[in-house]
Write a structure and sequence with these properties.
The complex is a heterotrimer of chains A (306), B (524) and C (301). Chain A is mainly α. Helix content of chain A is 79%, strand content 0%. In chain A, helix 1 runs antiparallel to helix 14. The N and C termini of chain A lie close together (9 Å). Chain B has 524 residues and is an alpha+beta fold. Helix content of chain B is 30%, strand content 23%. Chain B is built from 16 helices and 19 strands. In chain B, helix 15 packs antiparallel against helix 16. The longest helix of chain B is centred in the last third of the chain and has 18 residues. Chain B starts with a helix and ends with a strand. In chain B, 54% of the residues are buried. The N terminus of chain B is likely disordered. The longest helix of chain C has 37 residues. The relative contact order of chain C is 0.14. Classes of the chains: A mainly alpha (306), B alpha+beta (524), C mainly alpha (301). Chains in contact: A-B, A-C, B-C.
């Protein structure tokens, strides 16, 4: 076990290092931040001074080494645009992203699980067919299009919901729903299919044979088993959404970390981009590690290969 | 124990309240933190350090907390702010008379030393983006508590105009705290105190009792960013906000008909223009390999100029919310020549010119433009392509993000591109955009296509040393006439109007420089 | 095989119609999608007052015909979806196959870490970098989408191969002296194809959506190329003023396309799902099982 942990730990560090290095190269290949940062009036001389002040006049290798050295000391640089520490800029926007993602997954679960149960209870019934159709539809509408339509109806045409900012819970209603739409469909289908399988398994049949009432059978026996894959997917969805809700945050102007990262990307604010990538990479590495750990603990066959 | 019905009704009521909008009470507007005057911008300030970012939205937010030394009037002339009078004593020296009795928001009195140091800070701080405005300043002398003498290495006849970009900062405090800490809790001499903010999202302000100027109309102000034009407008029309900048041209009628708000619009100082390669014979990146560069021939330039129907662009794309450019300089600049007209829109003439230049069947060229920097930039580029096609010029539009556009433009990767330039004054514009390139002397750094006219440069050099306004303006006009009419250095297209929607209870008009300042807003 | 062996009629017909429209776009589209006409900008669709049948779905902000842009846009979407997934399959499939066949060891660990790495780098960054280096364009965005999606195939194929490896028939083949390559191609590969097709059927609509998203952000196709996502983005600003068609109609086309693909994908999953097949055999009256959703998405939600 210890060996497993150590191997994965150093692999995780290695992964983080590779990611940061790759991104470092990628963003330097994209263009010159001074060209975007400097106002048009700024003379060549002033630009050179600015470039030196930001450390961008050194050769790429030198910049890279300095950056890595900074990271090891916990210093991830300051934003070219706000002068504030890059990591702080990202971290102070994590709560907004967290709220958005949490709310959407919450909505998705609160709606998806009951829908899934309902559909599974009477397979091929009317409810099942309707829910299946709706869930396919839910998977087919692109997030940005749904967001646009929601904004138009609820903010612009009828003005009942705010379309930007994060001042109150109301501000999260539309973005959370936009993100949740696809997931509701997903969870419905997932719960339905796993529940259907479980309902036919022996331990459930036995319960039924023993005279346990149907609702109890479903809720107590079948659901517990059916929820395991749901939990796995839940965890993965959370991770992906966290780092992936870029368009939603942008369309609804939520001051989350993904939107900050996109803005930083569009203006080549290197320190902020790199801080974001580090956070996301660390997150994915951790999630994958936990998933592998869970599998390792659950399935003895895999453990030896781990 | 309340009955179920009561509880249900209460819940519905709360839900309805959550969704419904409460109408804004006029009397309470701006008088409490719960009901501030709200001004919505497209973007948001990235920093509250007033010399770190030269960009209109950032400056609009900052200049409620900080005062600049002078400010521009709606006619573009410098008027007193912290400096109440100015005199130029000698070609290389200006004298400023400062306002007495000004204090910083932490109680410390403002001295001439603060003003002097602010100017030097703007000029010397490596990260300062205000450097160009005070480039030639070498030092200052405090003559008495309200008189400051500023020394220059080169004459700057337009120094009072440039001072409108220099904020007055509490230098002692900055030295003690460090810039980053200072920017987190900025202290200035302005009408409003900093309360709280989230970078690029919102800024909360509160009127300061110790302000030296007229008491402001609205005690509590909130500046926010609503990037989406349609939702920004909706917020205005529903009474959630009082001022919304950058209204889409399509929506003017809607605002006017709403009865709740009106449009204020004024020609701005940003020139949108086309630049053309003026230095490469072959191998210009926007042409096919081996093709000659057609833009070296002034006839081709005039042909392109005359093939563009700017009036149609203005009408159809901007819904009249733009001003056709008759010359590169916008109307408020001192060198603006009212007598000039554009070359006429004439497809026939354009075709004739192209044929005479050796391109009877036109040519193919790539047009580079941004898609995320200027209002309708991508749309205008596409429309231009459509227009030029009519005279046989096949234009491939390459509309790219500014993060890619500007570095490439600086490297000289463009043959034919669309961009904007915000003029501050004719001299600095010339030296940046029109002057023959000279890296050592720092001329022509924005002159990407290497336009060069020695004669015109000489005229501007003379103008730069002239403190006689009439003479200087004459020289400037002569130089720009050469560039605009004879050489067609750039094809000026239009000046974007500065447009905002203002709720009925607020009296305020747009400024040509695009700054939106809460302390200039009055109650109806 | 009964009711579920035929593909669902309506979605398949629609999808075929959309594909035919895309292929024969030059013949079907009423106008050149890039032809501007500023005088006719924002003309409403034909059935609305002020519209004309010359522009059946109206025109956009530059006077381009919306219907023609939708038809050509389908082309772009279908190309993006199919080609990018093909790239992902080849890249991911080959790597996964090799990793699985090689068993544990450094290659496997490297591959799994590469998956982590690729997931951590935001799609938008890759798209922006490619754009900066090579400019906008359909080919480039297809490449980006293809690159971004290989991980799921690598994991899937690797997992399948690892599972199949243990089986008797493989051990038997090895005992009989079959070479490694032969084992891979004759024995492992056919059994991997099932889950692979399932994943592909889920992935194509996602790739279509990703192209639309990237174009929506301005990082995809060139600004004049008709892409449904791009046109939605370009048309959005007119929505509030009442001109809904430049944005909504291409959006509906996109939804329709993805919907058909999803429905057909469901059917593919039903047919290829081993659980389902087993249940049919044992005579259990079946609701078609929905396969567990892909564990790795390539969305930019």
């Amino acid at each position: 076990m210890l060996r497993f942990l150590l191997t994965r730990a150093w692999q995780a560090l290695f992964t983080l290092w590779v990611v940061v290095s790759l991104v470092f190269l990628l963003i330097h290949a994209t263009g010159d931040p001074i060209a975007v940062l400097a106002p048009e009036q700024m003379s060549a001389h002033s630009r050179a001074v600015l470039r030196a002040a930001l450390g961008l006049d050194r050769p790429l290798a030198v910049q890279y080494v300095r950056y890595l050295a900074g990271v090891l000391h916990g210093n991830l640089g300051v934003s070219y645009y706000s002068g504030q520490p890059a990591m702080r800029l990202i971290l102070e926007r994590v709560p907004v992203t967290l709220e958005l993602v949490g709310l959407s997954i919450g909505v998705a679960v609160l709606l998806g699980v009951p829908f899934g149960i309902w559909a599974a209870v009477r397979p091929d019934g009317v409810a099942d067919r309707v829910l299946r159709s709706l869930s396919v539809l839910g998977s087919s509408v692109p997030t940005f299009f749904l967001g646009i339509l929601l904004i138009y109806f609820f903010s612009v045409a009828f003005n009942v919901l705010p379309a930007s900012g994060a001042g109150s819970l109301r501000h999260y209603i539309m973005p959370a729903f936009t993100l949740a739409f696809f997931r509701i469909a997903l969870f419905t289908r997932l719960v339905r299919s796993t529940l259907l399988e479980t309902l036919n398994q022996n331990h459930v049949r036995t319960a039924r044979a023993k005279g346990v009432s149907e609702p109890v059978v479903i809720l107590k026996h079948a659901l517990r088993t059916a929820l395991l894959p749901l939990v796995t997917v839940f965890g993965l969805q959370f991770g992906q959404l966290f780092a992936g809700a870029v368009i939603t945050e942008t369309i609804f102007a939520l001051p989350g970390m993904n939107r900050m990262a996109l803005q930083a990307l569009y203006r080549l604010d290197y320190p902020v981009i790199l801080a974001y990538v580090l956070v996301v990479a660390a997150m994915f590495v951790t999630i994958n590690f936990l998933v592998d750990l869970a599998y390792g603990l659950l399935d003895p066959r895999v453990r030896h290969h781990g | 124990m309340p009955s179920w019905t009561t509880r249900l009704l209460a819940a519905c009521g709360t839900a309805a309240c959550l969704l419904a909008q409460s109408p804004a009470a006029q009397a309470a507007l701006g008088d409490s933190a719960q009901h501030p005057l709200v001004v919505a911008f497209k973007g948001g300030a990235t920093t509250l350090d007033p010399i770190m970012r030269s960009e209109t939205t950032t400056e609009s937010w900052q200049r409620n907390i900080f005062d600049t030394v002078t400010i521009l009037s709606p006619q573009g002339k410098p008027v007193p702010r912290i400096a109440v009078a100015w005199k130029n004593l000698a070609p290389l020296s200006w004298q400023l008379t400062l306002r007495a009795g000004v204090t910083f928001q932490n109680g410390m009195p403002m001295t001439a030393e603060d003003v002097g140091r602010s100017i030097m800070d703007a000029a010397n701080n490596p990260k300062s983006q205000m450097r160009e405005f005070v480039n030639d300043v070498t030092g200052y002398k405090v003559v008495n508590p309200t008189t400051l003498e500023v020394a220059f290495s080169r004459p700057d006849p337009l120094f009072p105009v440039h001072l409108s970009a220099i904020p007055v900062m509490p230098e002692a405090l900055i030295k003690k705290e460090g810039r980053a800490a200072f920017a987190a809790h900025p202290i200035g001499t302005g009408a409003y105190r900093f309360v709280s903010w989230l970078a690029e999202d919102h800024l909360d302000l509160r009127a300061w009792k110790g302000y030296w100027g007229h008491p402001v109309a609205f005690k509590f102000v909130r500046l926010e960013s609503i990037p989406n034009g349609a939702t920004r407008l909706a917020a205005l029309l529903s009474g959630q906000i009082e001022v919304a900048e950058k209204i889409n041209p399509e929506d003017f009628a809607r605002v006017k008909n709403s009865g709740r708000a009106r449009i204020t619009s004024v020609p701005g100082t940003r020139t949108m223009y086309l630049a053309m390669d003026d230095w490469r014979e072959t191998g210009s990146p926007g042409m096919a390999a081996g093709e000659k560069n057609p833009f070296l021939d002034p006839r081709v330039r005039k042909a392109v100029y005359e093939a563009i129907d700017v009036g149609l662009l203005r009408e159809k794309i901007f819904n009249d919310a733009a001003t056709v450019a008759t010359q590169f300089m916008p109307p408020l600049m001192e060198s603006f020549d009212r007598g000039l007209k554009r070359f006429p829109y004439s497809l026939a003439d354009a075709r004739k010119l192209l044929a005479a230049a050796g391109y009877p069947h036109g040519f193919t060229v790539r047009l580079d433009a941004t898609n995320d920097r200027y209002l309708e930039d991508s749309l205008v580029a596409q429309a231009l392509a459509g227009m030029l096609q009519q005279v046989g010029i096949i234009v491939q539009v390459n509309a790219i993000p500014k993060a890619v556009f500007f570095p490439q433009m600086n490297r000289g990767d463009f043959t034919f591109y669309l961009a904007g330039w915000g003029s501050v004054d004719p001299l600095s514009t010339w030296n940046s955009m029109f002057h023959c390139r000279d890296a050592k002397l720092g001329f022509g750094h924005v002159n990407r296509e290497h336009y060069c006219s020695q004669a015109a440069d000489a005229l501007i050099a003379k103008a730069s040393g002239s403190f006689d306004d009439a003479a200087r303006v004459k020289l400037e006009r002569a130089a720009y006439a050469l560039a605009d009419r004879t050489d067609i250095a750039y094809i000026p297209l239009y000046f974007q109007d500065e447009i905002a929607g203002v709720a009925n209870g607020v009296v305020w008009n747009e400024r040509p420089d695009g700054l939106i300042l809460a302390w200039q807003m009055q109650r109806k | 095989m009964g009711r579920f062996s035929r593909p669902p009629l309506v979605p398949t017909t629609f999808l075929l119609a959309l594909m035919l429209a895309a292929i024969f776009a030059p013949l079907i589209a009423p106008h050149d999608p890039q032809q501007q006409n500023l005088m006719m900008r924002l003309t409403p669709p034909a059935w609305v007052q002020g519209g004309s049948w010359a522009y059946p779905f109206g025109t956009d902000g530059l006077g381009r015909d919306v219907a023609s842009n939708m038809i050509y846009g389908l082309r772009v979407s279908l190309l993006a979806g199919i080609v990018s997934v093909a790239i992902s399959v080849v890249l991911g499939g080959v790597t996964g196959l090799v990793a699985g066949a090689a068993g544990d060891g450094w290659f496997d660990a490297v591959l799994m870490r590469l998956v982590d790495i690729q997931l951590s780098i935001p799609v938008v960054l890759i798209a922006l970098a490619v754009l900066a280096l090579t400019g906008r364009g359909l080919g480039k965005v297809i490449l980006v989408i293809g690159l971004v999606g290989w991980a799921q195939y690598a994991r899937l194929v690797r997992a399948s191969v690892l599972a199949e490896r243990q089986k008797d028939y493989v051990l038997a083949a090895r005992l009989l002296g079959a070479s490694r390559t032969r084992v891979i191609f004759r024995h492992l590969l056919p059994n991997v194809l099932g889950p692979l097709f399932v994943q592909v059927s889920v992935d194509i609509p996602r790739a279509v959506e990703l192209e639309a998203s990237l174009s929506f952000l301005g990082l995809g196709v060139a600004v004049t190329t008709p892409s449904l996502g791009l046109r939605i983005a370009q048309g959005y600003q007119y929505l509030f003023s009442g001109a809904w068609w430049p944005s909504v109609l291409p959006g509906l086309a996109l939804v329709l396309l993805v919907l058909c693909e999803n429905l057909i994908g469901d059917w593919v999953r039903d047919v290829l799902d081993p659980h389902y097949r087993r249940r049919r055999k044992s005579g259990v009256p079946a609701a078609p099982a929905q396969a567990a959703p892909a564990t790795v998405e390539r969305t930019v939600p």
